[in-house]
Amino acid sequence: MTRKALLLGATGLVGRDCLESLLACDEYEQVTVLTRRALSIEHPKLDVHLVEFDNIEACQDRFQVDDVFCCLGTTMKKAGSRQAFRHVDHDLVVLAGNMARRAGVQRFLVVSAVNSNARSPFFYSRVKGQMERALIKLDLPLLAIVQPSLLRGEREDKRPAEDWGNIFNRVIEPLTRWTDAHWLPVDSRKVADAMVGMALMGPDTGLYRLRYRDILVFAGKFHEKVTKAA
Question: Which stretches of 134-174 are assigned E, i.e. beta strand?
Fold first, then answer.
């Protein structure tokens, strides 16, 4: 049985990889993307709609899909203020969850962060935690919250702190493979593959949080599936 997917945040690090993963799946007959910027990729089953996200509710009909993949997110530097950051990483994500629920979407998969905590004294972690809490209250059929730590990948914007963190973790990672080290960095491609793998081969209902080990497991399942289909 074929499915339809909706992707939000297709121009970001995980979003770009998620789009490629979705297009590589025979299970998805159509992949709709809502984006502020035009994409450089073309594909027979790709349906791109340019939209201002402050007016996203005008796109309610685009949520008539099986699975929603939400990769929306920004940085304090890009956002320019705490209020603007919260608008993207909390308000727009929760709004997308509401729209998915109204449309009867079966699976909602969202990228968060490993240190999310609604009561954290740190603004970034607190916003992510409050976003998760709001989505959980929507009682979606399936909510998969993917919580990576530092992300590896080619970003359009350089993040020195993240780059140094990745270098440090590359050195010590071989020493921690036997642990459930959720703080270990992970490739953005694996996060994207894990999201699609969870949608295709995971449960149909419930609340799930995917951290480092879970990301590797579902990314592996997705890779094996695509390899067999090739």
Answer: 142-146, 151-152
